[in-house]
Amino acid sequence: MEKTIKNKAVAHLRYKRISPRKVGLVLNLIRNKPVKLATAILKHTPKAACESLVKLLKSASSNAENNNHMDVDKLYVSECFVTPGPIMKRFRPKDHGRSHRIEKRTSHVTICLEESEQ
Questions:
Q1: In sequence order, what are the residues at sequence separation of 6 or more whose Cβ sits closer than 8 angstroms to the Cβ of residue 101?
Q2: Helix (H) or strand (E) holding 112
Q3: In terms of pTM, does the model score above 0.85?
Q4: In this structure, are strands 9-16 and 107-115 parallel, antiparallel, or unpaired?
């Protein structure tokens, strides 16, 4: 039994100062879509995460073209996921001299591209 290993082009975005939950909503829009369609979706979606995800998608596409010698027109988003990064803890003053903790979340985003067989 012989396994064929598919070429994958991967790009990572580390320590982005946005909540993983917000990024995950946008990643669900582009999963299993061709790269050109995914770029168009990201450019026309009014979310905070879209700008950095467009850059990440372009980076993954360039990695596929230059490092793995893949055809850019056949690429699609095979995997995309977000994992939580470190949380910065800050404090805000509240009533009666108390303080409450504010958690500033960060994200690690990964996008994998593959060539479609068509």
A1: 89, 90, 91
A2: strand 107-115
A3: yes
A4: antiparallel
**How many other β-carbons are positioned within 10 Å of the β-carbon of residue 62?**
13
Is there a contact between 9 and 112 (Cβ–Cβ < 8 Å)? yes
Integer Cα distance of 74 and 19 in angstroms: 31
DSSP-assigned letters across all residues of 33-99: -BHHHHHHHHHT---TTHHHHHHHHHHHHHHHHHTS---GGGEEEEEEEEEE---EEEEEE-GGG-E
- Tokens coding 7: 């070429």
**What 3-state DSSP class applies to 28?**
helix
Lookup: tokens for 96: 């009666």
Tens-place pLDDT, residues 11-42: 999 999 999 999 999 999 999 999 999 999 99
CATH superfamily, region 9-115: Ribosomal protein L22/L17 (3.90.470.10)
Domain boundaries, the chain: 9-115
Structure-block tokens of residue 73: 């027109």
